[in-house]
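call fold(seq) -> tokens
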Amino acid sequence: MEKACRDCHKMVESGKAMCTCGSNSMSTDWSGYVMIIDAKESEIAKKLEIKKAGKYALKVR
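ret:
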């Protein structure tokens, strides 16, 4: 099961203990996700304040 970072919402594999943003506050309680391919051109990435491409959870508890 994938985990989501509580700080930046980036999805990470369950075996990893730390997010690429440097946070170790991970949760398995998340819902919905979005894939960002081109963060600079994506309107969704701008609204969600996402700066890097990747898979992000929409809601993390």
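The chain has a mean pLDDT of 94.
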